[in-house]
Amino acid sequence: MLDHDAALAWMARWDRQQEGYLPDREERFTAMIDAVEALGRPDPLVVDLGCGPGSLAARLVERLPGARVVGVDADPLLLGLGRAAYPHLTLVSADLRKPGWTAALGLDGPADAAVSTTALHWIDPEELKAMYADVASILRPGGLLLNGDHLDTDDATPALAALERAVHDKQTARVFGDDLPEDWRTWWDAVAADPALAELNTARTTAGADHRGSESHLLSHHADALRAAGFAEVGTLWQRGHNRLLCAVR
After folding, report:
1. Are 34 and 119 in contact (CB under 8 A)?
2. Which stretches make up the Methyltransferase domain (predicted)?
3. What pTM was estimated for this model as a whole?
4. For labelling alongside 19, which of 46, 57, 149, 184 has CA 20 to 30 A away?
5. CA–CA separation, 217 vs 50, rounded Å?
6. Is 70 exceeded by the pLDDT of residue 212?
């Protein structure tokens, strides 16, 4: 079984792997938490969509100790890793693509914000519409949806989209040079080789939680689905290249 110290070591390795794709990851986290703090509530209720092992949730609680954060994900291994590393977090197992997932959260009232980081692009555009409608149903009026991800604009402004990716690539090269962190596949191969993670890895395989592809990678996929779900305002709150923080106001 995975103990706390081993889980923290795996989390450090996870964070480093993610930074290889997101050299501005911590800056994006900061912007997201700034937006939650700007709501002006001492104890905001926040739902972390596709929370993975809880990287964002842990930072949010550290920065805003009064916040109540409920993370939700369908990956048993990432949830198990997060529970071992961050026992103070509330992490719930549910699939955002399936009706009724909001009931699994156990909320005692409307949420002030729903946040997500590099997770929702796995959901295809049609499922995304239903998922955002579910998110709208658990947010209070004026509540926020904050989605940090690589979101492209090739369908609307292809020349700008190419420039955004170039800006991102140049920033990555400045930060890492030829010393890139391990990639996604290498991290998962290492997980599969660790006996302490065998039970969780088996559960992950059984659940079919292996993410592949980027079904809703366009900014328009998300903006259109959010407007259809009844969000009053939708726009980019922070951006570096095509790495952006999309914000929608309920």
Report:
1. no
2. 46-143
3. 0.95
4. 46
5. 16
6. no
